[in-house]
Automatic annotation (TrEMBL):
Residues 74-324 form the Ion transport domain. The lineage of its organism: Eukaryota, Metazoa, Ecdysozoa, Arthropoda, Hexapoda. GO terms for biological process: sleep. It is found in: Membrane. InterPro entries: Ion_trans_dom, K_chnl_volt-dep_Kv, K_chnl_volt-dep_Kv3, VG_K_chnl, Volt_channel_dom_sf. It holds the Pfam family Ion_trans. This is Ion transport domain-containing protein. It comes from Culex pipiens pipiens (Northern house mosquito). The keyword Transmembrane helix applies. The keyword Chloroplast does not apply.
Length: 394
């Protein structure tokens, strides 16, 4: 068990570092060869026949998708964040009563003597016209950003299937759909329900993950803790159903003229609020048996929520500590080799079939002609920073 412990720690650490590689948290500028390999013109790069579009495409992509690649990219990122905040703020403020304008309508009514009269109706309100122009400017920027990023993206399929990009172009498309509905379906009854679909614009906040590595780590933490979150939801649903049924029948055992639990579905709402320790107080048991069931429900909710939370917190701490330690290393030493590629040096007299022999081992063990300076024990340094959960880095 002692022998397998280091290898298990190395494998776990390599999986964590592989996840961090996919998150693309590096802020250093890649080389020309790396850009050529990423955008698929590596052959033209070695031949020296790179076209002007192949040269401009990575620069445009880095401007709009990598906010920390240059000063110009930082300016584009600030503009993007500004329009996101303005769009969300406009979407929220236009629902305030003081920000809405009443719609005046003349309605014909019949008086008591049978004659017709005009009544001015202003119960219906619309958002101020200024919000329309603000949304037009914001969505013009979002449309331009989507088109530029799509044209300059290195992988079109990955761009289309990305969850953040899906939210982005659905939210932008909802603005144009809303304009069409206001133009052709405003006369229909309950047309305000159609505005509910514009709530997808709030999801633009997830675009901020491109500008914050902490949000990327947080989302990855929820992905890594999917089993614990599923287990938490399962036990919550199980407890809600059990305690909703118990409190429904407990309140009917004794005489209770002010019974709030007229059905089990109402008890489901009470059990959900109680187990999540919210406690609105809109529904409460009145009998002693119901109070006892409520106490059990509250205790079960505290235990159910408290048990999986440390696992989620430990996952976040692990990713965050690895990210901080990895950021302090030079970029060339952040690459991780699998454990299977590490070989021991060949011992004199050892058969060729044993580990440490063969062409690959000879190439790995031959002395380097170029002096790279003093070697750095990266493993020891990073293990001290992350609690002993790092593998061999090159």
């Amino acid at each position: 068990m002692t022998t397998n412990a280091p290898s298990r720690v190395h494998r776990d650490t390599q999986e964590t570092l592989a996840v961090l590689e996919r998150l693309d948290l590096d802020t250093e500028k890649p080389t020309e060869e790396e850009l050529a390999r990423k955008f698929g013109y590596e052959d033209d790069y070695f031949k020296g026949t790179v076209s002007w579009w192949q040269h401009m495409k990575p620069q445009i992509w880095s401007l709009f998708d990598e906010p920390y690649s240059s000063n110009a990219a930082k300016i584009i990122g600030v503009i993007s964040v500004f329009f996101i905040c303005v769009s969300i703020l406009s979407f929220c403020l236009k629902t305030h009563p003081d920000m809405r304008v009443p719609v005046l309508r003349n309605i014909t009514v019949r008086t008591a003597n049978g004659s017709a009269a005009w009544v001015l109706d202003k119960t219906q309100t619309n958002a101020h016209v200024a919000f329309f122009y603000i949304e037009c400017v914001c969505n013009a920027w979002f449309t331009l950003e989507i088109l530029v990023r799509f044209i300059s993206s290195p992988h079109k399929c990955e761009f289309i299937t990305s969850s953040v990009n899906i939210i982005d172009y659905i939210a932008t498309l909802s603005f144009f759909v809303d304009l069409i509905l206001q133009r052709f379906a405003s006369h229909l009854e309950n047309a305000d329900i159609l505005e509910f679909f514009s709530i997808i614009r709030i999801m633009r906040l997830f675009k901020l993950t491109r500008h914050s590595s902490g949000l990327k780590i947080l989302i990855q933490t929820f992905r890594a803790s999917a089993k614990e979150l599923t287990l938490l939801v399962f036990f919550l649903v199980l407890g809600i159903v059990i305690f909703a049924s118990l409190v429904y029948y407990a309140e009917r055992i004794q005489a209770n003229p002010h019974n709030d639990f007229n059905s089990i579905p109402l008890g489901l709402w009470w059990a959900l609020v109680t187990m999540t320790t919210v406690g609105y107080g809109d529904m409460a048991p009145k009998t002693y048996i119901g109070m006892f069931v409520g106490a059990l429900c509250a205790l079960a909710g505290v235990l159910t929520i408290a048990l999986p939370v440390p696992v989620i917190v430990s996952n976040f701490a692990m990713y965050y500590s690895h990210t901080q330690a990895r950021a302090k290393l030079p970029k060339k030493r952040r690459r991780v080799l699998p454990v299977e590629q590490l070989r021991a040096p060949r011992v004199a007299g050892q058969p060729p079939g044993m580990p440490g022999s063969g062409p690959m081992a000879r190439r790995m063990n031959q002395p380097k002609t170029k002096d790279l300076g003093p070697k750095i024990d990266v493993t020891t340094t990073i293990i001290g920073k992350t609690g002993g959960k790092m593998a061999h880095l090159l």
